[in-house]
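Annotators were shown the component list below and the corresponding predicted structure, then asked to write short factual statements about the assembly.
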Amino acid sequence: MHNSGKTKPVYTRALDLKKGCVEMVHGSGGRAMTQLIDQLFVAAFDNEFLRQMNDQACFQSCNGRMVMSTDSHVITPLFFPGGDIGSLSVHGTINDVVMSGAKPAYLAASFILEEGFPLADLKRIVGSMAKAAQDAHVPIITGDTKVVERGSGDGVFITTTGVGMVPEGINISADKAQPGDKILLSGTLGDHGIAIMLLRENLAFHCTLESDTACLHDLVANMVTTVPNIHVLRDPTRGGAATALNEIAHQSCVGMLLYENKLPILEPVNAACEFLGLDPLYVANEGKLIAICAAEDADNLLATMRKHPLGKNSAIIGEVIEDTHCFVQIETSFGGRRVVDWLSGEQLPRIC
Amino acid sequence: MKYIDEFRDGALAQKIAANIAIEANQARSYHLMEFCGGHTHAISRYGIVDLLPDNIHMIHGPGCPVCVLPIGRVENAIQLAQIPGLILCSYGDMLRIPTANGVSLLKIKAQGADVRMVYSSADAIKIAQNNPQHQVVFLAIGFETTTPPTAVVIKQAQAMDLTNFSVFCNHVLTPSAISHILQSPEVRQLGLLPLDGFIGPAHVSTVIGSQPYEYFAEEFQKPVVIAGFEPLDVMQAILMLIRQLNEGRAEVENEFSRAVLPTGNMKAQLLVAEVFELRRIFEWRGLGLVPYSALKIKSSYAEFDAEKRFQIPELSIADNKACECGAILRGVKRPQDCKIFGTVCTPENPIGSCMVSSEGACAAHYSYGRLRDNNTTMQKN
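Structure shown to annotators:
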């Protein structure tokens, strides 16, 4: 963003985006902060709303139902194979918005920066956010920046908020699963969590594993077009598929039966989980969704999902059953049954 | 996963299950104890009980090192960790065990104590090297499997002249625990605990070998089949035990021959013998005082013995009255027989140690098996 050439910038020297770092003055509300916002954030996110330089973004609303969601991102490390905290913060919130079947419209972004954080890294993160937002056609239209003393943060924390519009006739909610429904999963489990874990623990495997972080808006748009009567959508992030399914089971007062043999899991994820003592069902995903629909719609929905690049490994992984205890159970590869319980304790902190 | 998938083959499991069903004598029942928490976990995780006929009963044994540590020793560790400037290191599950008043290492960590989770004893000695101004104590627990690595770091600390490192030793011995169970009045006289045979430890046996179990087979006429921790290992061991019992044999057999030798790992045994000696008596949670069932650090390594350095007192603290961990560890009760199971005591808020570790009988049943307590939910389709 440039001040349209009409007014003179309040600063004279450009930000040192190569060697500079975040200083307390960048959050003080003075010239330095204006410069950081101008040269870094507005330049990257550039759109008509931001250019107005108001404390809020003003936009037209629609007549129908709107959804809103917010998500804070505190992941460590900030950069990982397949993405970084920037792209993750855009994908995470857009995905939460579209799990209602909505078309995402706008994003807001709020940054907490730690004193001393390299501006070059910040530029990389902001660039990655801008690209993710652009790819999803969802502009970041307002934001905020705060700086905390060295030691009071961990580089950068990003909170994003998104709004979207729900198309007419779509009514997706986690309390709508019904006995007899089929449970679909859009791809392999645990890629994000394990990619992060391998990086943190310095474990070298003979293959590179990337986070699956991705925006699911396009996949969801195709899905609701084919089957408008999808009952439930949820992205299994923290706590993994097991946690998401337990939440849905409780919200809908139903049980679930999964088939271990049907769960799509990449070989290196399986191996790493074995090595680290983790269960892929509890490992975080950032580009996957769980869909629940009536049995008669399941094949149609599965075919649509598989046609999309982000759903090519989709599978029907189980079904909704009647159960007053709301247990999620799984038929093991041995043919026995066990509970797939809520995640207990902390499996992997600071994952998103 | 090569070398692992072979031991989790569902089709093969069905074949073994079919053989078990054919060979198990309908006229009798079989009460088999899996000693190790690793076996308990595999049985629950793969739903193996569903593959067994009704007359085969699996009894969970005391082989979960986190579960058998008495509360007094946990209290000792908590007091140690509250010494200003001291860094206490231990394995993850240890941090969650609550004492009688609900305090755990994790809770005092949140309040500011320097408690660190480590994956191995080597991590603990590294922390000591990197923090020369702090006393670093490694809270060592476990059966024969984790004892050699503790011996290694004690020797390393001596070689490096580390003056800020010590070990709070809580290593215990498997054969003494098995003897204690077999000699308990519940098994010998009262008949409260029918016990026909044992699935013998996997990893422990790689260290001590299969010979130490010969005594049980001979003296108590109970068959022992040493088995790996993979689910097919467990299935095969159950079949082997049934065959022994049907034929009236009581022998030590080794299903885990890919890792266990009759004499075990001599190098590890020598290392342990060099650094540790037997305690005359040690308290086990559930089993009470068991003679010659644990190890202490030899006087030649006394400078690395946290019990001596910090003059750790002997504390004996009774379990919560409602908690049935003791009876569950002896195999006399099942987790679901405990009144507070799943209500007051859950993995999020464990009262007893069996609910803490994923190898604990209560945690395994709660996390994987409790749907069997409500028959209505077992829908077949």
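Statements collected:
1. The longest helix of chain A spans residues 119-135.
2. Chain A touches chain B at residues 255, 257, 261, 267, 270-271, 274, 319, 321-325, 327, 329, 331-339, 341, 344-345 (CB under 8 Å).
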